[in-house]
């Protein structure tokens, strides 16, 4: 049996040595291997952040959404655009639609 740290290292080595995610070949150069790991981590992080943003927007677009929820959504959209998660024009479009939406005071 492999302990947890050995198992993690073994998994990483398997990913570096053989076939990568989606059946793509993994590079042989050390820096490129590291780059693959970093980009996978960033991809996972971005997916989570986008999913969180979409969920918040669904709550904000729901009928009878609270004013605070809409303001929070607009703030999160701004932050996402600033960090490059979504395009600035898309952020402006989303915020415009949020602003047009009637809010329940609360």
Order of helices and strands: HHHH
* Largest sheet geometry: none
Mean of pLDDT: 84
CATH architectural category:
Up-down Bundle
If helices are DSSP runs of H or I spanning 4 or more residues, what is the number of helices? 4
In words, what does this structure look like?
With about 110 residues, this protein is mainly α. It has a single domain, classed as Up-down Bundle (Methane Monooxygenase Hydroxylase, Chain G, domain 1). It has 4 helices and no strands. The protein has helices at about 5-15, 30-60, 65-80, 90-100. It is elongated, with a radius of gyration of 20 Å. The mean pLDDT is about 85.
Secondary structure elements and pairings:
Blueprint: H1 4-17, H2 30-61, H3 67-82, H4 88-100
Helix pairs in contact: 2-3, 3-4
Question: What keywords describe this structure?
Answer:
106 residues; Methane Monooxygenase Hydroxylase, Chain G, domain 1; elongated
What is shown here, in short?
The chain is mainly alpha-helical and 106 residues long. It has helices at residues 4-17, 30-61, 67-82, 88-100.
């Amino acid at each position: 049996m492999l302990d947890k740290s050995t198992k993690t290292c073994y998994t990483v080595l398997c990913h570096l040595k053989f076939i990568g995610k989606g059946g793509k070949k993994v590079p042989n150069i050390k820096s490129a291997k590291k780059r693959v790991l970093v980009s996978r981590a960033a991809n996972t992080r971005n997916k989570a952040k986008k999913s969180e943003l979409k969920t918040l927007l669904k709550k904000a677009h729901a009928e009878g959404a609270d004013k605070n929820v809409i303001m929070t959504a607009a703030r999160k959209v701004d932050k996402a655009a600033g960090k490059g998660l979504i395009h600035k024009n898309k952020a402006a479009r989303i915020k415009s639609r949020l602003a047009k939406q009637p809010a329940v005071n609360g």
